[in-house]
# Entry
Amino acid sequence: MPRAIVIVGSGGRLGAALLREWGARGEQVLGFDRASLDLGDFPAMHERLDPLDFDVLVNCAAQTNVDRCEREPEEAFRVNSSAVATLAEICARKKARCIHLSTDYVFDGTKGTPYDEDDAPNPLSQYGASKLGGERALLAVSDRHLAVRVSWVFGPDRASFVDQIIQRALEQDRVEAIADKVSVPTYTLDAARLLLALVDRPEIGGIMHLCNTGECTWQEYGQHALDCAAALGLPLRTRVVEPLKLADMKGFVARRPVYTPLSNAKFTELTGLTPRPWKESVEDYVRTTLAPRALSSTATANPDRPARSS
# Structure
């Protein structure tokens, strides 16, 4: 029997994927993007959600601009903490489950090995602190609720680092990426399938880590994306991602943790599912989404010159 699921933040990378993929699987899914549900407007949240009957609400919405959160912490905590408490309370009154998406930025990056759910958070930024506040507010309402931490999210519904690095390599002779910050990419299409396993297990509450397996720097992430693009025949102007240092990013306002890979061990133990390696997911995304787009654009821009294909 299909479940009634509400997706808050359905205009973002992950929310859009959940709305589409879960709907295709037969779930009764209703999405709210920012225009239809602003997490900064608490009365509007009640107005939109109180009349609805649903089994699960998944909150993918947040203020995710790390430097904006540092400059405007009041907004960050309103959206990333207080609004989550409101969603959790609405769900609890309906005896519905709330699944809230959180972040690796709740950690300070000093552990040196992948973080598990029992590691103590210690955020370095207002963004991380506000997201941690959201987790704690969620779980204070009900231990049936679930906070799922993800990292470096990419997918077909909204441009991310993968899209940007390939686009730059198509247009420029030099591209760069940070080589001394490590985490794990999370492919939205993989996450959609794996998160549904958590929806299937209402007894699972608390904190969960969920991303692809492995770890990489931004430079390694970008280099693999370019390698995949080159293998598929994209007309790249450069095939090398040059290194940058995090300390050289003078435009950053907030501190970033330097090592935050998340362990999927708990997820695998509880569900029997193992997320695939991040390299496989990036190759899949470049092959199925980015390469066809880029080759189509090349063909349109050069109608008398056939585009290369794989």
About this structure: The CA atoms of residues 187 and 281 lie 6 Å apart.
